[in-house]
Amino acid sequence: MPSISDPPVLPTVSRALLEDWLTSLRTHCDPRQLKDFLNQTRLSAAVQPRARVTHDQIVKLYQLVAIGTGDEMMGLWSRPIRTGALKHLCASVRGASSLSAALFRFTTFWNLLLDDYSLDFRTDADQMQLILVPRNDATPQRFGHMLLIKLAHGIASWLAGHELPLRRVSFVFARPEFAEDYPVLFPAPVHFGQPASAITFDAKLGNLAASRSESEMQDFLVRAPRDWIFTNLREHALPLRVRELILLSDRLDCSLTNAAGMLGMTPRTLMRRLDSDATSFQAIKNGLRRDIAIRDLMSGSKSIEAIAQDIGFASPANFHRAFKHWVGATPGAYRRSGA
């Protein structure tokens, strides 16, 4: 099992999640510029259908593209969001009297910039919602909708000083083939094919203070989106809770029976609930082993043999076969290519 000094084992997401963004970048960037961005993030070789993308790669690509193109929303909307816009947004919301007031300012800010959508802030005694309302019949850009809603959650959580739970996240577009990636991003049930894309908070959060200092704002902007692109909350998604239980077990040997017992349910119930989430206990365990292997292969600090042993393979040959099945490349090829 990896030692406590190892970096955290964050989930990876599928390359397919980024393809909408990359499609937009291909029309927004010079081909040589985009190639350089991908090379610097070690994404240029990740073209296999089963390729995975790490948290660090997403963060670095976001930062490179936002600076390199002068568009802080990186071609995802019809109008460029010029450099400095997000700094002014944060300066505006951090002076609000409450989180509810800050979210209202968030929507007002974006409504000055967006041409193809308006962002509505709706509240009642039960909930607060930010809703993307189309101004025309343009096809929704899936990554753009995800990123703007995720930014709202990230800024709200930063203002509150901790990651905020959500009631619901809705998207107007149909359920994509990579839907299993969304629980990694949002601490709430995610619904597709809805009347509008929206994010919903509990109304009681609206009274939270929204005060942050200038230096805290600078740190938040410099690190963006490192602190908020992936959720840290695991309670909202059963597969992520199971993943955490396996990660904390000795040498990844947590069994279905043990996991079910720790979750207060029978093995049959756990199997049924995971099946309803289109996954299984073994698939979650394999995904965790894959992500530990990807982390360690990219860091270069361990031999392939040591990685295989750490994640419970009897031999490097068995690990080679499994890893190629997971991501479409052998461990050695993955490490050499920087995928």
From TrEMBL:
Pfam families on file: Arabinose_bd (PF12625), HTH_18 (PF12833)
Record's keyword annotation contains Transmembrane helix: no
GO annotation, cellular component aspect: cytosol
Origin superkingdom: Bacteria
GO function term, MF aspect, one: transcription cis-regulatory region binding
Residues annotated as domain HTH araC/xylS-type: 240-337
InterPro entries in the record: AraC-type_N (IPR032687), Homeodomain-like_sf (IPR009057), HTH_AraC (IPR018060), Tscrpt_reg_AraC-type_HTH (IPR020449)
SUPFAM superfamilies named in the record: Homeodomain-like (SSF46689)
Keyword annotations from UniProtKB, A to Z: DNA-binding, Transcription, Transcription regulation
Name this protein carries in UniProt: Transcriptional regulator, AraC family
Species classification: Bacteria, Pseudomonadati, Pseudomonadota, Alphaproteobacteria, Rhodobacterales
